[in-house]
Please model this.
Amino acid sequence: MYSFEKIQEEDYENIIQIMTRAFDDDTQIHTGDKAGGPSGYDNGELLKKLMDSFHARKIKYRGKILGIFALKIEKNQGILELFCIDPSYKSKGHGTKIWHEIEKAYPVKVWYLETPDYSVRNRYFYEKKCGFSVIGKKKYGENCCSYMFSKESTSESVNKTDKIEKKETKI
Model:
């Protein structure tokens, strides 16, 4: 059973370690570099930004934190800012199941996200496992790009409010 819970201060170190392992794993697989990710991913600055600006939740499975997501809902549109799972849980079906539960917990008409162009595994996951489509490419500086994705909801009960319930969600 998965649960989405508010991140507590005592979770920070564990979540920062998970984020560091996840971003470094992706970087190693796709670029050959030993480490890398968005600014602040490995020192808590990104986590603080996500918690200040987005609806951020830890993902628990069998009592352990296995990841985090951060999203924003505006005018019946969802923006997935971050979806991160500990690499030791990857390729076991958790990501797909969790994404579908996020969609149920936060029903909107359309979802948007972006992921680095070098991350073939992320693109495959979002397109083939979650049903997203590429809608464009965004350039960041000389050598960095990301793919922009969207997905229209298949849910019949799309939420008509812009507010996110702050209660814990158990799935």
Remarks:
- Residues 12-31 form the longest helix (20 residues).
- The CA atoms of residues 2 and 97 lie 9 Å apart.
- The chain has four helices and eight strands.
